[in-house]
Amino acid sequence: MRVVGENVKNDIYDIRTALGMAREQGLDLVEISPKAEPPVCKIIDYSKFKYEQKKKQKEIKAKAHKTVLKEIRFGPNTDDHDFNFKVKHAIKFLQDGAKVKAYVHFVGRSIVFKERGEILLLRFAQAVEDYGKVEQLPKLEGKRMIIFIAPKTQKK
After folding, report:
1. Measured between alpha carbons, how far is 56 from 153 in angstroms, rounded to an integer?
2. Is there a single domain that holds both residue 116 and residue 136?
3. Is 100 within a domain?
4. 112 shares a domain with 54
5. Pairing mode, if any, of strands 11-12 and 28-33?
6. pLDDT tens across the length of the chain (156 residues)
7. Which of 14, 31, 59, 107 has a Cα-to-Cα distance from 156 of 20 to 30 A?
C-alpha cells in the first residue's frame, strides 16, 4: 500500500510496516483511497480528522441560505381595504426574500363560497406578480384554499 502523511516518506510499504510507523508516531493509519492501485493510506490522528470534517460540514450548513415562509390569512369575504393591507405586507415579505403562503380559511358554511376564495387568491397573486411568482396555484386542502408565491430573483 502507498503511505502518505506528515513526517513520513511517501512510498509503498506493506501493512505491518505502515501500522508500525503509525504506532511509533501515536497516530492512526487511515485508508484514503481503497480503489487505487496500490491502495492509499494516510497516517493521521483520526479523531482530529473527524472533528475537522464535522467543523467543515457545520460551516457549509451555516452559510446555506435558509428559506423563510410567511403566512397571510384571508376570509372568503375579505374587504378591499383589508385585501390591500395584506398585499402590502406580502410585497414587503417578498422583497425581503421570504416565500409567502396565502390562504383563505373557510369557517362553517362559508365553504360553499369556494369560488370566492379562488378568485380572491388569484387576485392576490396578480397584485404581487411584480415581486413574486406563483409556485402553486390555489388548491383546496380541508377548510383552507392555499397558494404559494416565491420571490423573484434580484437581477444585478
Report:
1. 28
2. yes
3. yes
4. no
5. unpaired
6. 888 888 888 888 888 998 988 888 888 888 888 888 888 989 888 898 899 889 999 988 887 777 788 999 998 888 899 999 999 999 999 998 889 999 999 888 878 878 888 899 999 999 998 998 998 888 888 888 999 999 987 544
7. 59
